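Form 7-S
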Amino acid sequence: MERRTNPQPNLRPGQLSQKQKQKLAMQLMLDGHGTSAVCEKLGISQPTFWRWKNSAAWQEALWSAVRGEQQDGEIHMRTLVPQATRVAQALLVTGSDQVKLGASRLVFETVANLVAREEQQALLSQLEQQLDEIRATVASNGAAGQLTPGNSQVLDAEIVAHSHDLSHTEQQQEAKAE
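Output:
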């Protein structure tokens, strides 16, 4: 993925404010430059650079930049899905037997991943609903209705049992498919 920022080559490090240097230092780091290279390009000492990196503001800005890049990457990947789907369709028709088999496997694995994700989302929704019910019960019963260690163990057991039931159901479905 190409970076959006482009340091201006005509500016010398002495012409930049400290804030501009910090921003440029972070961008250089995100672009894969090492500490020594960043310090040399910006005309700063390594202790200064380490002080910047260890500040809370730097860490927050870094995580914000990384999240933005991650979101950009996810958006970019989503835009490639229609093209990848067309290529897989074409390979299923025109490819050699080995290519057709590979394309078929890709389709089946993708569908399986989508189904698994939907099942996980459904389970999470169900668990969130149960948690909301527990919170409502605790709120209505006041301090006397709070979960005790014994109650939370029962809840854990129910979740484990439910997860085991799902696993057993999946095994039965696989056996039927064979």
